[in-house]
Every structure is written in structure tokens, then in C-alpha cells.
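FAQ: What does a ligand-bound record look like?

Like this one, built around 6-O-phosphono-beta-D-fructofuranose:
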Amino acid sequence: MTESAPVDPTTTDAWKNLAAIADGFSPDLRGWFADDALRAERYTFQAADLTVDLSKGLVTEEILANLLQLAKDVDVSGRYAAMIAGQHINVTEDRAVLHTALRRPKDGEGLVPPKGFIVDGQDIDADVHATLDKVYAFADKVRSGEWTGVTGKRIETVVNIGIGGSDLGPVMVYEALKPYVQAGIEARFVSNIDPNDVYEKTAGLDPETTLFIVASKTFGTLETLTNARLAREWLWAELSAVGVLEDTDEARKGAVAKHFVAVSTALDKVEAFGIDPENAFGFWDWVGGRYSVDSAIGTSVVIAIGPDNWREFLAGFHAVDEHMRTAALHENVPVLMGLLNVWYTNFLGAQSHAVLPYAQYLHRFAAYLQQLTMESNGKSVRWDGSPVTSDTGEIFWGEPGTNGQHAFYQLIHQGTRLIPADFIAVANPAHPLKDATGDGAGVEPGQDVHTLFMANFFAQTKALAFGKTADEVRAEGTKESVVPAREFAGNKPTTSILAPALTPSVVGQLIALYEHIVFVEGTVWGIDSFDQWGVELGKQLALQITPAVAGDAAALESQDSSSKSLIAKYLELRK
Ligand code: F6P
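The answer part, i.e. the structure of the complex:
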């Protein structure tokens, strides 16, 4: 443990002031906007290409001043500087936390820390760029057709096998950047140990044109290694079935060499699996799994979108890293958003946080953020081992708009819970389709559909902020008994994030933004946002329970009574 005990945020004057403000707090977004013509301007900020409007949040100058003071009291800036310099701020694993180093430009001037900095004896920049160059060279070979399968055919499908950070990041980015995917190359993602996953994802594939990427930081994850073995067996069986694989170990080894590559920090284990270390791409223990999408873990995406787009993606991250490092606290977007989340969570009682991208290509973004935010900040002890002094973590969830509008927005608008929501949209869609016909009832012939889409984005944040009063409902001629049901209280906080287009850079910017929001919240709460001990117990128990589930009577007998009867029922049902 190299870090000193965290500041207890609840002992600061800022925290006490915020608690006093929260006591009897009665937000009034209608009034606040009416009284302050500059409110939107005052609370709209820029981070790289992201325009972020916090004005529809439940924030006032007094609240903001205290939140900013809190950030100073817990030294958010100092801890961020320590993180990017390679201090072991992941104290429970005694590791540096250097995902920001994954996207430092190769030839950048004026980098902080300076180019060539050494951490624990490692030249970080040199290693990052050597690996990136190796990934780029491999991706170019696959994309050009120089890399072929064992029968000489070019690769058409890349199947990433990984879970958690070795899956959620790549699949989210692949989906987000679909318009950038090279024609003739498709990526699929296998994660679940449910055998139906690997079955479905290999269904219909041509073994001669399929490349598997086994992505696992530890190369010890049960799901991934099981799926990798299943995929290897599938490859051998399918190649044999079409008569292109001899029945020899040598031939099987040759097939694996051409159809399997790996990404891991444990290259010895990669070799033991039978993958040529030449075809393995490394990363390092200072990259957390959920912070690893911009490491070699993204190899499937590099193949799909190409090195040039990947460089742009990394540049997007770096732009927001630089914003986080250099922008003054009062205009620092990740700091402001992280602090607002603390305000909602610790003072206004919010328990969950919706992320609502008005961009269908971001349909996996909330799932990705769930690991990033909840595995990072779902903690009950602080980095010195003492109990936390406040609630931590937020339950992140969401779906793209407008789909969510027709599903769960009702609860956000009129339910009893406070659910802060981030609305994310881009101005220019990849495919700007027009509705040639229209409907003659508001949708004109030739209507730009993105305009309709964005009208929903703006309408929702407006409705959530300003609601609809009983008098406004009455004025529409609603009968009195129904007026309460049709009233909207308003004062539901939202943050609006707008970008020019969903480019590789913008996707990188969005990810970095949320990484740093997580960091800010974790720092306030005094927790190590970079370990994940909470997932270990279930993993251990799954292995211990397997014999009982397989039917071993003695193992079944040793279970607690609930597990025993459930497993017995399962065994009875299982044919
Ligand atoms: O179980 C949690 C976890 O350790 C995540 O943090 C990680 O992203 C995931 O498992 C996969 O781990 P690996 O990349 O080592 O297979």
C-alpha cells in the first residue's frame, strides 16, 4: 500500500454544506431558467468534440462551489497526476493504473509525464507502441488478405472470445463503429460459458475463413478458456468435415497457428494453449480489464476498422485525457459530471443512473459502462481497508433512445425515484435517410429522419426538466379526475452530450469521459476503483460446486440445504 489514508469526504466543510443544502432541497428548474438568462451558457462546457450541457441538472452556483471545494479537499487533481505518472494507486493489487498511457501519441510533444517515462523499470511508451505496431501489422495482413487460413483463403470473420473487459469494450466499439468496418470482414463476439453462445456465434461460419482471437488478460478465465477449447474443437471438426484437415497432431497444430491468435498479459499460458507466441499480442498488469478496450484487447476491432481509424480512436481518448489533466476544475467536464453524480447519489438519494444514447450504433454503450462503473466503484471499503463513510457506486443502466421512451421512461418521468440521466447524441448520422412519403400528419414528405430522432432527444430532456403543471393539463380540457395522472413534476436531472458525428475519435472521447467520471467519484469516496475482488467468491464457488452439479452424491450432500435441493431438482430435470 503506497497511498496514505483517504480524506474522509464527510468530514469536510464542503460535504456538510452540501448536506445542509440537500436538507429540504426543492429544485426549481423552471424558476432557475426564468431567473437566469445565462444558465444554459453558464453550465455548458466543451471537452474535445463533446459539448456537454449540465444546465438541466439540479445544480446551482452554491452547490457547484461546494462540489468543487470537495474535489479540492480530496485532491482529485493530485490523484489524477499520480495515476498518469504510474504511482501504484491500485493499492490492493499494488499496481500502477496506466490506461491513459495506452493512447499517448507516438511522437507527441509536451506529454505529461514526458515521453519515455519509466514505471517499475518499464519504458511504458516504447512497449505500448511496439505492441500497437505489431497489432497494426497483423491487422493489415488480415485486411489485405496476406494472412490466410490454413487452406489459403482470406479471413472473412473474426471471432473474439473473451468476457468482461475482454468482450464488452470490443463489442461495444465494433457496434459503435460499424460504418467504418471494412466490407468483407465481420466480427462476432463469444463471451458466455452458456454453450449456446459459442454454438450460435460459430453457426454458419466457414472454418477456412474464420479467425479466432482469444482475449483474456489473465488467460485463466474459465469462460474464455472453455470457449476457446470449444472453438478449437469446432475448427478441427469443421475443417475435417470439408476434407481439408489431416488426422494428425501436426495438421491440427498447423490449423490452430493460422486460425487462432491471442491477446493477454500471460503469454506463457497462451503458448501452453497451443497458440504461437508470434501470434500473441501482449499488454500489462497496469491495464485493468475494464480499462483495456484501447489496448491489444481491441485487436478484433483494429482488424475490422483498420489501423488509421484505430489511431483516430486513440487520439479521441487522448484529447479527453488532456482535457482532464489541464482544464480548470470549474470547466473540467469529467470532474463536473463526476461531482454531480456524487451530489445526486450522496445527497439527493439517487441510486441509479440512466445512460440514454440517441444513437443506435451505441446500443451496447450502457452494457459497457455497467462494467466500467460498477466493477470500479461498487466497493464498501476504502483504499486503506477502512469502511467507506458514504454510499458508493451507482447502478448504471440504459438503452438507446427512442426505444427506451416506449419502455421505461415512464418511471423516470413520473415515478417516485430520482434517476439522473445522460442523454448522448450526434448531429450527423452515418446514414441520413429521408422519409419520402411522410404521413400527412406532421411528418412531411422528404422529412429528414435524423431530425425527427433528435426532436425526441430535445423533447425528452425538456419534459424531464420542466414537466407539465396541473394548470397546463387542465388548459388542455382534461377532466379533473385525470389531471393528477397527467401532471409531470419536472426537475428530473439530465446531462446532454452532443458530438458532431459518431467518429472513431468521438467514441474514444466518450469512453475516456466516463473512465474519468468513475475516477472522480472513486476519489471522492476514497476507494480503489481499479480492483475487483468482489467477483472472486462466485468464481471459486462455481468450481467447488461443479462436482455436485455433475451428479456427485457426496459433493451434493455437502451443500447448504437450499443449494442442495435446487441442484437435486436440476438433476431431476436434466435429461
Ligand atoms: O471477473 C471479472 C474480471 O476479472 C474482469 O475484471 C475482467 O474484465 C474479466 O474478468 C475477464 O478477465 P480476463 O480478461 O482475465 O479473462
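Follow-up question: can I read anything off the structure? Yes, for example: DSSP finds 23 helices and 15 strands in the chain.
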